[in-house]
Prior knowledge:
The protein is α/β, with parallel strands linked by helices and 257 residues long.
Amino acid sequence: MSAPQMLSVRNLSIEFGGVHAVDNVSFDVQPGEVFAIIGPNGAGKSTIFNLISRFYEPTAGSIFYGEHDLLEVPAHRIARMGIGRTFQNIELFEQATVLQNLLVGRHRHMRPNPFLEFLFLPGVKKNELEHRRKVEDVIDLLEIARYRDQRIADLPYGARKNVELARALCAEPTLLLLDEPASGLNSEETDDVSFWLEDIKHDLGVTIVMVEHDMNLVARVADRVLAINDGKVIAIGTPDEIRDNVAVQHAYLGAAA
Ligand SMILES: Nc1ncnc2c1ncn2[C@@H]1O[C@H](COP(=O)(O)OP(=O)(O)OP(=O)(O)O)[C@@H](O)[C@H]1O
Ligand SMILES: [Mg+2]
């Protein structure tokens, strides 16, 4: 018997007032791979993430995370199940420091009962130290030590983007959904992202699904690519196969025309 897929999406569809934003989409993500979703603006990429995160209820189809039927899971339990994400428009607490934002990222591992925390103070101390250690590991990995005590609102764009990735990693996800991790970054910052994604995959063993427009980055880090247009699957394959695919080329040319 084959091992279960990390993520298994079948015939997924959603409509917004007659617009088929996602239309009968199926794909599997294997444990340990970097899986990219590409397509022109408005193709339905972020909507797929919003369906997996359970922000949106599909009109049809299924989403399995390992053996878990995600359509049975409410949105607030998704992070606790080990699914982390970043957003196309960075979502951080602007007035809080980098460190405070990262500690919020640990939330899914925190004890839910403050009364118990009060009764078992020594244990809490240990717990708190453990959270700090995890956060420090991520700070080292993504090289953001110099920003640690700065407010998010005072950071340059590239650093904010980086902190959002760090915040997602602090939750120790099994599956990470990244919506355009390199958008708005210069080529040097994009290089950094490609190295970090390799580290996240190889050293942390996290499975990554990434929406991205930068095809150079996709070609460097993705094992497989799903190309969509108008909510529909055009092709699934290796980065080379997708780049050479005539239907994919037409989708982009059509979108540009
Ligand atoms: N909440 C919503 N209400 C109505 N329409 C929506 C909603 N969310 C998405 N859509 C529509 O669904 C389609 C797909 O949008 P989506 O944001 O998924 O595109 P995308 O592929 O992420 O594009 P981009 O590359 O520009 O980020 C668009 O036509 C969009 O207007
Ligand atoms: Mg989008």
